Amino acid sequence: MDTVVETARPGPLVSVVIPTRQEAATIDRCLSGLMRNTGPFEIIVSDAGGCRETVERARAFAGVRVAGAAPGRAHQMNQGAGLARGEILWFLHADCRPPADAVLRIQQTLADPTVAAGAFRFAIDSPRRAYRVIELGARIRSEWLKTPYGDQGLFLRRDLFFALGGFPAVSRMEDLYLLRKLRRHGRIAVVQVPLPTSPRRWERSGIIRTTLRNWTWVLSDWISPRPTRPSMSTHPTGGTR
């Protein structure tokens, strides 16, 4: 039987949806961080295959549900959302290290009816000084421009997510396209608690190249936004394994 982690603390159920594909090296740390939270919350890992060890490691944590999904982060997150039971959806990347009070802060943030969605303060899990510059740029982008990235842990109410059709069927920037629609329904709040994410993207492609690519994508969306065709029209369904 699936388990929901709960305590006496009141509040709506938060469904944590984690899209994975070959994340055996990171999933333990992510799930361990979540388990330090007080509830109520549930965890759904939406796995696109490619690494059996990812599934095995996720299932080793009590109460975690693992759902199979076709590759594609937008599709995986929509699939996981369709299995969720909570009033609140929290989309979390597998290479993030969640703070111990994240669930409580999400509940508190969305208790404000003027808030449409929220995210955490961006942080890179590395002591390198160059990353502090990137974090400053991300703070400007997310707090001034109200455009947090998905690796900041986007969260919102379940009903609004499905009313907007979920994440659009695009290969990248699905989070930014959804945010564009969310801004019409209320404020985008940024919780002033860091959600550390792995530096692997910058280490793999280089700090300057990765940063310029990310900002180019954002600017191109502002100048010439693409149609945001939803990737689902109703609650998706999928099996667990």
Structural class: alpha/beta
Report strand order across the widest sheet. Answer: 3-2-1-4-6-5-7
Structural domains: how many: 1
The number of distinct β-strands equals: 7
Globally, the shape reads: globular
Q: What number is the mean pLDDT?
A: 85
Distance between the termini: 13 Å
Number of discrete helical segments: 9
Low-confidence regions? 233-241
Name the CATH superfamily assignment.
Answer: Spore Coat Polysaccharide Biosynthesis Protein SpsA, Chain A
Q: Name the CATH class.
A: Alpha Beta
Order of helices and strands: EHEHEHEHEHEHHEHH
Question: What integer value in Å does the Rg equal?
Answer: 17 Å
- CATH structural fold name: Spore Coat Polysaccharide Biosynthesis Protein SpsA, Chain A
* Helix residue percentage: 25-40%
Task: Report the biggest beta sheet as strand number plus sense, adding barrel if it closes.
Answer: 7 strands, mixed
Q: Do you know the CATH architecture?
A: Alpha-Beta Complex
Strand residue percentage: 15-25%
